[in-house]
Write a structure and sequence with these properties.
The complex is a heterodimer of chains A (252) and B (266). With 252 residues, chain A is mainly alpha-helical. Chain A has 2 domains: 30 residues; 216 residues, MetI-like (MetI-like fold). Helix content of chain A is 81%, strand content 0%. Chain A contains 10 helices and no strands. Chain A is elongated. The two termini of chain A are 16 Å apart. Chain B is built from 7 helices and 10 strands. Chain B has a 6-stranded mixed β-sheet with strand order 6-7-8-3-9-10, sandwiched between helices. In chain B, helix 3 crosses helix 4 and helix 4 runs parallel beside helix 5. The chains are: A mainly alpha (252), B alpha/beta (266). At the A-B interface, helix 7 and helix 8 of A face strand 6 of B.
Amino acid sequence: MYRLKDSGSATLVIAALIGLWWLLVLLTHSMIFPTPWAVVAGAWELVEDGSLWRHIGASLMRVVVGFGLAVCVAVPLGLWMGWVRGAFATLNPIVQILRPISPIAWIPIAILWFGVGDASPIYLIFISSVFPMIVQTIVGVHTIEKRYLRAAENFSVSRRVLFTRVVIPAVLPQILVGMRIGLGVAWLVVVAAEMIALHSGLGYLIIDSRNAGNRYDLVIAGMIIIGLIGLMLDGGMRMLEGLRWVRWRYVH
Amino acid sequence: MSTKIEICDLGKSFPSEQGRLAVIENVSLTVNEGEFVALVGPSGCGKSTLLNLMAGFIRPDAGSVTIDGEVRSKANSKGILISQQGSVFPWLTVRENLAFGLQGRDAAEQARIADHYADIVGLRGFENSYPHELSGGMLKRAELARALVVKPDILYMDEPFCALDALMSLRVRNELLRILRIERHTVILVTHDVEEAIHLSDRIYVLSERPTRIRATFSVPFAHPRKLSSPEAQQLRIAVLRELGVELDEPSEPLVRPQVTPLAHG
């Protein structure tokens, strides 16, 4: 939680940057680069004709589907790879090879496989967010403290109880960290993916505004909106850290 | 009294940079049913390893651990280990922790038994608290209660009080003695605190430096509640310390000590 004083100084810095931006545009008499006010006016235009909501909705939908699929794959796979030594030995090299490949590098193949519809960006979001979540879940399993596993062994509980009562609750905070990273990457990638093709989304808005008459006011408005939504997504994930199932991890 | 635990020529070594490091060598001991035995030794001597061998968490290289006439090969809920660092699950409430060993019974019964033991160890009112909301002493009680819930034949306690301050340690020790009067368990206590061993146990095994061997055995024939200030207890303390290599020149009644030290009451 930000203290009032902290958020006050942050607001001050943002105001100073906007002031500087405004000043520089006026001093250089730029014909193309917009003033902050022109950006606000441009954004308002998008609000009024309703296209802003359409673009935001399209981008968010792709993130929700792609990220959701990635969670469904990464969490069970990460638990399995973390728990079963053989699974880790077999699959970890593949994960480590695929992980550093930039999602941008996947774009040609995504278009080849999935065309220019919604499936392409969804695939790119999936491929970029699934690996951080797999890795984080594995780390979570590997770092469960031995004393807890011993205690479970001591009470000779069944495998099912061991997983539902010990392993999964112990790993949950790490899964949440992975999800936070994954969602951040997903939001980065959706915008990049939408710049390539498609007819909706915030990425498309930016490229289309430039191509259709150098509307840099809309380009910057799009960028700022992307940043604000990213901030809100991260804030939402951080709120999950307050849930009772994971709070134990953050209190010390 | 029947023999509960019999250890024969137990040996254990671990790999290290200078070849294999012998931690335990030729340890033989017996523990009777319902007996409270303390294993006292210097820090790092392999006491914990011995306890882990007895509880079945690790396998010996030589010799055997026999419990109720059967060779112990793996851990089970007949002997619960209470570890030094504590292993109360931080993601479960006190009630859920206490009911952990009761999986398979219906939820209402689990809660009833858990709450009964929470009450016994003095955690009534904290059933829905999480471990991070408890003090160190309460955590120890919760761990003890979680073990008692499954009615284990044997409690293995690995320096359970050493993380507590002196006052809290004394309280939990008295609590343990009170519970053991109600529910009879065989207890193996590992400790480096001689007074603690004299306060609690029926018999003391003094262990040597690594590799651990048994140096001496003392019986503690005092009735509870015990007064550690009594001359007999002091003599025993000096004798045990001497076996541990500590010579005390001080008089049997140390100067700075209250006249009466009622270590156990009620």
